[in-house]
Specification:
two-stranded antiparallel ribbon, 16 helices, mainly alpha, single chain
């Protein structure tokens, strides 16, 4: 498989989406007025399709997301929050072999949206266009360093997150959790004969592409013995001991998951990446 530097990977994403301003104005929180977040038992009382329609509307609401974040902060340690309940409910659908392709795809997309929204990671996705100049300037460097990783992180992560240890780690862990859902989405689309059940939009392609590349980047540069979020935070603060930026990273657009989701959203990422 073709090998590529991680800097070029970020630039490739920018090339794909810079000409599509509607994706950067995309906001998953322009939704309806929310109700108080339900627990898993309440969702299970509903028909699956009705529950997914309900969650699709509510996860698109700032107030609903904020209520989930507040509930999680107030949930005693060791107990499931409403966020955990909804996440677990969606996971049971998208991992259920008997569920329809439409339900599995929708549940996986919603799980990704949920984790990106409640962790602050969605702000990084939306910040990509503003980081175009910084990232493009790095594209000519064939031998990236730990300082290049720091430059990327400070370019794409808002100041309110990059200067707050807990917010920074929550953001990264949100990406890592969302990546699991997008992996399932790709598998579901393939298993359904390239049928995504209508779940993949331009916004989903953008969210998935950024999420999966960040997940692969973190897995590639962070040493196996170190927590990924801890290592990248320490790097920002001047301790690069947990990372190795010289790793050879595969072309992510040749990766089955990203390519499958992009194709379902009518984007040929590999063609753009390979020129």
């Amino acid at each position: 498989m073709k090998q590529a530097g991680f800097v070029l990977i970020f630039v490739a994403i920018l090339l794909i989406f810079t000409g599509c301003p509607e994706f950067f104005s995309f906001n998953i929180y322009d939704g309806l007025d929310p109700v108080f977040p339900p627990d898993k038992a309440e969702l299970e009382k509903m028909d699956t399709s009705d529950a997914l329609d309900y969650l699709e509307d509510e996860i698109a609401s700032d107030s609903f997301i904020e209520a989930l974040v507040q509930d999680e902060a107030n949930t005693p340690e060791g107990e499931d929050s409403k966020l955990d309940d909804i996440d677990n409910y969606l996971a049971e659908i998208y991992t259920n072999p008997a569920a329809t392709t439409e339900d599995k795809s929708t549940a996986a997309v919603l799980a990704g949206d949920l984790r990106l929204g409640t962790s602050g990671a969605i702000d990084v996705v939306n910040n990509f266009i503003d980081a175009a100049s910084e990232l493009s300037a790095l594209s000519s460097n064939p031998n990236p360093t730990e300082d290049d990783v720091k430059t990327i992180l400070t370019a794409i992560v808002p100041e309110t997150i990059v200067n707050d240890e807990q917010a920074f780690k929550d953001m990264l862990n949100g990406f890592f959790a969302a990546a699991d859902a997008y992996e399932v989405l790709g598998d579901t689309i393939l298993a359904g004969g390239a049928d995504d059940g209508g779940a993949v939009t331009g916004g989903v392609v953008m969210n998935a592409a950024v999420t999966l590349v960040i997940d692969e980047l973190a897995s590639g540069i962070v040493k196996d013995t170190v927590d990924r979020a801890d290592a990248l935070w320490n790097l920002l603060k001047g301790d690069p001991s947990g990372v190795d930026a010289s790793f050879p990273m595969s072309d992510p657009f040749a990766d089955t998951t990203i390519q499958t989701i992009a194709t379902a959203g009518d984007f040929n990422l590999s063609a753009v990446f390979n020129g």
